[in-house]
From TrEMBL, chains A, B:
UniProt GO molecular function: glutathione peroxidase activity; glutathione transferase activity
Keywords: Transferase
GO biological process, one term: glutathione metabolic process
Residue span(s) of domain GST N-terminal: 3-80
Domain of life of the organism encoding this protein: Eukaryota
Protein name per Swiss-Prot or TrEMBL: glutathione transferase
Length: 205, 205
């Protein structure tokens, strides 16, 4: 009997979307449980780390979004063939996380002066530096971030870019041709394209 | 012929120490290249992401410290037997990273008022919450963080606690008996104990 999957996350792409991309890529049926702002305070204490997403697999509750994505990647055949390929994939994912965390830090900063300062650092330093590095990875790997083939790093990247573009308010990878290629290599996968076409639109913030 | 390893990091435990623990655990000979503050500006542009640590393996340069630690863990037999065990290990490591990042954010904050605010959040919220969670993991896994056995999550935890205790200035895990047990399970491994006894003392900050 196939495993039963239930993803619980906010009604948003965010940190849940890489996992959704991976599940859809693998053709895995799953319950896509979407929590509203009103529901979250009641649910929060019952989650393992007070955070979403969580993924229930045959009743076991998995947490920590990147670890969950790596686990799902192993189930759908999107990891590397060798330990070194898996290092390369992990390093690309962690580099995506590096810019995701900086965009989130800017977005959630309450102090206006500090927020402006974080935005300048993002635009003038963080994004140009990290995106140039990732663009080079993608150029070296034929339009993928690692291992010269489609891996979960690419799905992770495309989903995170999708979400961060929504909060950033502009397509910040547009001038990085190899990153545009990575995104396109992911969003043109039929199962992903179909999911993007029918999924709820982000309307959280 | 065995692989040739060279770790390049600052003359400090920090993000290099989990990798050093793993290499020593595995009995892997490696060059422990320690960079001084004076040397770093010249070296930085030649590193893949402008960051240390990097680990050269037979001339290939690996970067992103957690990804490197996971890679070394695969070489020394400290990963899980199943995909779910590896998820559990990764989730524990990411939870250690969650508190490490918050301690670092406090430590490096330049604004005195903000720094005090971050310290209060650390002491009253972040550390009690995350350390209680990790202590529960350790209790459930017989003195290890995951998979009911020694894994790289434990070595990662012990090395990061070592470093963060140095910058925090107090043994903040002392009141969590299961975390003390995890640390002791790691530091009593002969190769790790011998390394700790002979390694350079942190004197960076």
């Amino acid at each position: 009997m196939p495993s039963q999957y239930k993803l619980t996350y906010f009604d948003l792409t965010g940190l849940g979307e890489p996992i959704r991309f991976l599940l859809h890529y693998g053709g895995i049926n799953f319950v896509d449980q979407r929590i509203t702002k009103d529901q979250w305070p009641n649910l929060k204490p019952s989650t393992p780390l007070g955070q979403l997403p969580i993924l229930e697999v045959d009743g076991r509750v998995l947490y920590q979004s990147v670890a969950v994505a790596r686990y799902v990647a192993t189930q759908v055949g999107l990891t590397g063939k060798t330990d070194l390929e898996n290092w390369e994939i992990d390093a690309a994912v962690d580099t995506v996380e590096d810019f995701r965390v900086k965009i989130a830090a800017w977005f959630f900063e309450a102090n206006p002066a500090k927020k402006q300062q974080l935005k300048q650092a993002l635009d003038n330093e963080v994004l140009p530096f990290l995106l140039t590095k990732l663009d080079t990875f993608a150029n070296n790997n034929g339009g993928y971030l690692a291992a010269n083939k489609l891996t979960w790093a690419d799905l992770f990247f495309a989903a995170i870019v999708d979400f961060t573009t929504y909060i950033y308010g502009a397509d910040f990878i547009a001038k990085y041709p190899n990153l545009v290629r990575v995104r396109s290599n992911v969003t043109s996968i039929p199962a992903i394209r179909a999911w993007i076409a029918r999924r709820p639109k982000d309307n959280w913030y």
